[in-house]
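Internal tracking record. Fields below are filled automatically when a chain is submitted to the structure queue. Please do not edit lines marked as system-generated. If the sequence contains nonstandard residues, flag them in the REMARKS field before resubmitting.
Queue: standard
Priority: normal
Entity type: single polypeptide chain
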Amino acid sequence: MFRRSIPEEYALVFQFETPEARNLHMMFVPFAIDAVWLVGTEVTAVKRLRPWIGLGRGTGDTILELPAGASDGIEPGDTIELVDE
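SYSTEM-GENERATED OUTPUT FOLLOWS
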């Protein structure tokens, strides 16, 4: 929140202990993002969240926040493996 933009090569990863329904909001975020919910490595939901008013909900133990457009082509049922660098 409160950032003006994010770099193209950017991602936030939120990891939780158990898969549950998890909500995201875009209050005070002036740019769109893509959100991807995962259970393990399986994608359960993908949504583009609009600036200021976007809301998203999905089930996951991990949520990825990416620049808008970065999740194009990713669909529920796909797998994503996270790697530490």
